[in-house]
Specification:
The complex is a heterodimer of chains A (235) and B (260). Chain A is α/β, with parallel strands linked by helices and 235 residues long. Chain A has one domain: P-loop containing nucleotide triphosphate hydrolases (Rossmann fold, 3-Layer(aba) Sandwich), CATH 3.40.50. Helix content of chain A is 36%, strand content 26%. Chain A has 8 helices and 10 strands. Chain A has a 6-stranded mixed sheet with strand order 6-7-8-3-9-10, sandwiched between helices. A 4-stranded antiparallel sheet of chain A has the order 2-1-4-5, covered by helices on one side. In chain A, helix 7 packs across helix 8. In chain A, 40% of the residues are buried. Chain B is mainly alpha-helical and 260 residues long. Chain B has one domain. Chain B contains 11 helices and no strands. Chain B starts with a helix and ends with a helix. The chains are: A alpha/beta (235), B mainly alpha (260). The interface between A and B is medium-sized, with 28 and 24 residues. Chain A: InterPro entries: AAA+_ATPase (IPR003593), ABC_transporter-like_ATP-bd (IPR003439), ABC_Transporter_VariousFunc (IPR051782), P-loop_NTPase (IPR027417). Chain A: It holds the Pfam family ABC_tran. Chain A: Keywords: ATP-binding, Nucleotide-binding, Transport. Chain A: This is ABC transporter. Chain A: One of its GO terms (molecular function) is ATP hydrolysis activity.
């Protein structure tokens, strides 16, 4: 259960979030969409406590997150850009995160799925972008938390890994978790998401199912429906 | 916090620069003892090196570590860990590994030379304590600068400037003001001015202990006259502690407010 009320945040003079209201109470996959710079990442980071909001309230599981940090144990977060400490090996990083979270993780299964065995003893600075993203996914998905947040999970993944990722997301969904995804790949969103949250100019502009979006914009194609939302605002 | 401290510490211990730093002190200690053959002279020479070099290394390592581990910090921020633990843990990791390099690097040659049988052991211990203080102070200052500056280049320049100011310029200004106002009583002014510079403070601390009045200089002499040796030592240690505590508290404060 996530509740966001009247969330405001500005960076210097740039007002990124201008009163976001969002309640996610039921389980499922929620896609947070919006043009570049619409505040998707800021919203997610505010939810994680990485960005401190100017005003408004945020609560996860009915507990306000202000000045709290224990709630983050319920969240698995995949950051947008995977950059890790350079002189650690993949194996060390995984065991370190497990140690820091004080929880066992299902890393073995995920390592096999993403075929990361040959890279386990390699240093993170020597990995390709796609492999780093796979490591990033393992780090995020190895814990069994009720909320999963994925910021651009498809970046750099090859088609096979993408298929695995979709399968994992579906499995996690069937376990009754709340999964938030941001992505610019519309086909991925259309396939995975139960509901769309569309951010525009720092506010929630649309929230509902893909079907509802299509009827509202009178478009049969999802990509066009999204484009329609954008042009509407510009016009 | 201890886990973060552990990981930062081991991360640094494995880095090449820690070894370079350690080797430098090993060499310095050995050469000084070999050439000097006099423990107390070696301690004085070491003091002059430590007082300038330790702050520089502390500042640079602190700033570098903060900026280099930025992505890692962001990874940690999303984990169920208290914010302040992350930054204080990293800070202590840097400061402790530097202090360790200093202690081991200087300790080995001095121990081999027979420090434990000599009377200079306490002078030497005080030297190491001062070195550790300076490391803690300047690493904390560097973390503060880095926390306030997103821009790496700016952060680096500010921290180098800070070091330059406290290590060189401050003394110059101080001396000039002494000359300019020489007809006024300057005792309390000079004591105050010393308190505001951890490098000066450390120098006086060591010289008071070594009891070499010729090297004390004006401030040192005033200090000794004003406080006496024992009390002077105590006052300067307390002042140094404040220099550690205040920047660390500010790391705590700032890290809880910052956006990432």
């Amino acid at each position: 259960m996530i509740r966001i009320e009247q969330l405001h945040k500005k960076f210097g003079k740039n007002k990124v979030l201008k009163g976001v209201d969002l309640t996610i109470s039921k389980k499922g996959v929620f896609a947070i969409l919006g043009p570049n710079g619409s505040g998707k990442t800021t919203l997610i980071k505010a939810l994680l406590g990485m960005v401190i909001p100017d005003s408004g309230s945020l609560s996860v599981g009915d507990i306000s997150i202000k000045k709290d940090w224990k709630y983050r144990d319920q969240i698995d977060y995949l950051p947008q850009i995977a950059n890790f400490p350079a002189n650690l090996t993949v194996k060390e990083l995984i065991s370190m995160i497990k140690d820091l979270r004080n929880r066992p993780g299902e890393d073995k299964k995920l390592i096999t799925v993403f075929k990361l065995e040959p890279f386990l003893t390699k240093k993170l600075s020597n990995l390709s972008g796609g492999t780093k993203q796979k490591v990033n996914l393992v780090l995020t998905l190895m814990f069994d938390s009720p909320i999963i947040i994925l910021d651009e999970p498809t970046t750099g993944l090859d088609p096979i890994a993408l298929i695995h990722l979709k399968k994992i997301i579906k499995e996690e969904k069937s376990k009754g978790k709340i999964i938030l995804i941001t992505s610019h790949i519309m086909s991925f969103v259309e396939e995975m998401a139960d509901e769309i949250v569309f951010l525009l100019e720092g506010k929630v502009y649309f929230k509902g199912t893909i079907e509802a979006l299509k009827t509202e914009t009178k478009e049969s194609n999802f990509e066009h429906a999204i484009a329609n939302l954008l042009t509407h605002e510009d016009a | 916090m201890l886990k973060i401290l552990k990981y930062s510490f081991f991360d640094l211990i494995r880095s090449r620069w820690s070894y370079v730093y350690l080797l430098f002190y090993l060499l310095l200690g050995s050469v000084l003892l070999f050439l000097n053959n006099d423990l107390s002279k070696a301690v004085i020479t070491l003091m002059n090196v430590i007082i300038i070099l330790v702050p520089l290394i502390g500042t640079i390592f602190g700033v570098m570590y903060y900026y280099n581990s930025k992505e890692f910090t962001e990874l940690l921020l999303a984990q169920p860990i208290k914010r302040s633990s992350i930054f204080i843990g990293q800070y202590l990791g840097v400061a402790l590994s530097l202090s360790m390099s200093l202690t081991i690097g200087l300790g080995i040659p001095f121990a081999l030379y027979g420090l434990f049988q000599s009377n200079e052991i306490w002078d030497f211990v005080l030297l190491l304590v001062t070195g550790a203080f300076l490391t803690l102070i300047f690493t904390a200052l560097a973390f503060n600068i880095a926390l306030y500056n997103e821009n790496k280049i700016k952060g680096f320049s500010y921290s180098i400037l800070l070091w330059l100011f406290l290590a060189v310029i401050y003394d110059g200004l101080f001396l000039m003001s002494l000359i300019a106002f020489h007809s006024y009583p300057l005792d309390s002014f000079s004591i105050g001015a010393t308190m505001f510079n951890p490098i000066d403070l450390s120098r006086i601390l060591i010289l008071l202990k070594l009891d070499i009045s010729a090297l004390l200089g004006y401030t040192g002499a005033v200090f000794q006259k004003f406080f006496g040796t024992g009390f002077g030592l105590l006052i300067s240690i307390i002042a140094l502690s404040f220099w550690v505590v205040i920047p660390v508290l500010n790391i705590y404060r700032k890290s809880n407010k910052k956006d990432f």
